[in-house]
């Protein structure tokens, strides 16, 4: 049922709009406009944040196109299908210059689209900083919406950039919320959230909005975020507003992806059982289990070792930002978790042809189950450029991580194995948080932690299903490894 609902959601997502993709001066763009629209329409360029792509921002294209705008989505350097590196992972003058160049390519391309009359900008996080910077330098930009930007990079002027709306999520870090209000107070010192200051017709309007119950990514899918952005552009371009919120569909694509993910998780056990069958109790060698103290204590020591390891792994060891330290972190934990079981001569067994074939099918199915909904709904999921070969070492380390967990679980009951698995996965997440707090890895890890947590839960369900049919350790490692490695390698920025 979930799969049917997800497919229907994607099938109807483009109703009423048309999309055309192109690559302009090396920058991938997608133009979205009302189906069959004629006459002059305002245009809006939409820019994504760090470790994201145009797919994450498609909800804004859907909303604005249905309200009479021509929208251009863009993959900035390092993100999505753009194979150019993003200097210093988006931090510093070189990165700003590269982002400004890509944004300028997108703006010029949209201006040249027949029927486009005027340009607005919308950006999220790193993309928000880019659109604010660009609009401040180009007074012909009619209006700007900056979502989760943080501190605004401009002085106390009500006219530069023109008509600025700053949005932040109520659950975001305090700096993001303060930055949104600060955008108003830079021009209107007594400004507060939820109040519009200045005159949109004169280009001096400022407004800050704090969207309750939303964090850094979730704010992009809140109906209020879309209503505020659409109303802001309507006022700036002198268009009639729509209090009914017609065209507001922030979650259709991402929601459809979530439904397909749910269907994949729920159906995995049945598929694994059909492919692998259920082995007899003797086929796993009657492995002796580790003591509970060892099974729970080893992951703690392994996580601490992983935290220490990321301190010495260069961030640029792989061409995709942060993948080197992340891969090393999971790899170290996996190897150390596997030491005790392997020292006690726990044999992994010789793989049978049927098992190998089934494992390959399950691995491919897992990749497809993640990548297809992601590509359609919220993230670029096709490896391009250096992402292709970076995927290999990341996958090897992820496989080591899950192999170590499975070796700790061997010999335990199904319930106890789930607890050991959850304990180790939760410890890894806590370790990443500790590494970020200590400055050993980029703070950006905290923003992608929800994605990693979701992948670990997904893999935990699959691992439990594989244990139920007594699949060899390496099968769970292979399937879980590609599930964790794929999004890390294809979504992190090329640096």
Description:
This protein has 495 residues and is α/β, with parallel strands linked by helices. The longest helix is centred in the middle third of the chain and has 25 residues, at 252-276. The protein is 52% helix and 12% strand. It contains 14 helices and 9 strands. It has a 9-stranded mixed β-sheet, sandwiched between helices. The protein has 2 domains: 9-250, Rossmann fold; 253-491, no CATH class. Helix 9 packs parallel to helix 11 (387-409). It comes from Actinomadura verrucosospora. The chain crosses the membrane at residues 258-278, 290-313, 325-343, 355-376, 388-409, 416-437, 443-461, 473-494. This is Dienelactone hydrolase.
Structure in a nutshell:
This protein has 495 residues and is an alpha/beta fold. The chain contains 14 helices and nine strands. The chain has two domains: 242 residues, Alpha/Beta hydrolase fold, catalytic domain (Rossmann fold); 239 residues, no CATH class.
User: What's the CATH superfamily of the largest domain, by name?
Assistant: Alpha/Beta hydrolase fold, catalytic domain
Query: How many domains, in number, for the residues?
Result: 2
Oligomeric assembly: single chain
How would you sum up the global shape? elongated
Q: In the CATH classification, which architecture of the largest domain applies?
A: 3-Layer(aba) Sandwich
Number of beta-strand segments: 9
Whole-number mean pLDDT: 92
Our measurement of the CA-to-CA distance between the termini, rounded to an integer number of angstroms, reads 41 Å
- Assign the CATH topology of the largest domain: Rossmann fold
What value does the Rg take, in angstroms? Answer: 24 Å
Succession of helices and strands: HEEEHEHEHEEHEEHHHHHHHHH
- Lateral strand order in the biggest sheet: 1-2-4-3-5-6-7-9-8
Helix content: 40-55%
Biggest sheet record? 9 strands, mixed
Low-confidence stretches: none
């Amino acid at each position: 049922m979930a799969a049917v609902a997800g497919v229907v959601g994607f099938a109807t997502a483009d109703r009423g709009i048309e999309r055309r993709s192109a690559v302009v001066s090396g920058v991938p763009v997608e133009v979205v406009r009302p189906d069959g629209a004629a006459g002059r329409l305002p245009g809006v360029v939409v820019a994504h944040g760090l470790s994201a792509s145009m797919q994450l921002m498609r909800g804004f294209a859907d909303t604005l196109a249905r309200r009479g705008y021509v929208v251009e989505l863009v993959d900035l350097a390092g993100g999505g299908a753009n194979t150019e590196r993003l200097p210093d992972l988006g931090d510093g003058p070189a990165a700003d210059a590269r982002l400004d160049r890509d944004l300028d390519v997108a703006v010029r391309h949209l201006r040249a689209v027949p029927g486009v009359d005027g340009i607005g900008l919308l950006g999220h996080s790193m993309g928000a900083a880019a659109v604010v910077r660009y609009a401040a330098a180009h007074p012909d930009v009619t209006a700007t919406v900056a979502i989760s930007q943080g501190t605004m990079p401009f002085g106390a002027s009500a006219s530069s950039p023109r008509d600025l709306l700053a949005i932040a999520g109520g659950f975001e870090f305090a700096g993001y919320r303060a930055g949104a209000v600060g955008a108003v107070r830079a021009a209107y010192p007594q400004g507060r959230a939820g109040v519009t200051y200045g005159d949109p017709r004169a280009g001096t309007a400022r407004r800050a909005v704090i969207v309750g119950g939303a964090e850094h990514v979730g704010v992009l899918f809140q109906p209020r975020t879309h209503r505020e952005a659409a109303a802001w552009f309507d006022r700036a371009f002198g268009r009639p507003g729509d209090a009914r919120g017609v065209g507001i569909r922030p979650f259709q694509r991402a929601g459809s992806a979530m439904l397909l993910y749910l269907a994949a998780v729920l159906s995995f056990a049945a598929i694994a059982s059909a492919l692998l069958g259920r082995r007899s109790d003797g086929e796993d060698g009657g492995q002796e289990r580790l003591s509970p103290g060892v099974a729970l204590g080893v992951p703690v020591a392994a996580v601490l070792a992983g935290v220490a390891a990321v301190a010495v792994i260069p961030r640029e060891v792989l061409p995709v930002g942060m993948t080197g330290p992340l891969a090393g972190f999971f790899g170290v934990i996996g190897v150390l978790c596997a030491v005790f079981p392997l020292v006690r001569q726990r044999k992994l067994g010789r793989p049978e042809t049927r098992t190998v074939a089934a494992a390959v099918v399950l691995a491919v199915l897992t990749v497809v189950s993640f990548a297809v909904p992601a590509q359609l709904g919220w993230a670029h999921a096709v490896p391009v450029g250096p992402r292709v070969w970076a995927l290999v070492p990341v996958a090897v380390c992820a496989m080591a991580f899950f192999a170590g967990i499975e070796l700790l679980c061997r010999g335990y009951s199904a319930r106890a194995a789930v607890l050991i698995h959850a304990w180790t996965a939760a410890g890894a997440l806590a370790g990443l948080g500790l590494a970020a707090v200590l400055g050993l890895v980029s703070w950006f890890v905290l923003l992608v932690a929800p994605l990693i947590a979701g992948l670990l839960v997904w893999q935990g369900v699959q691992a439990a299903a594989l244990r139920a049919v007594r699949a060899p350790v390496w099968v769970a490692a292979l399937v879980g490894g590609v599930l964790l490695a794929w999004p890390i390698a294809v979504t992190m920025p090329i640096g």
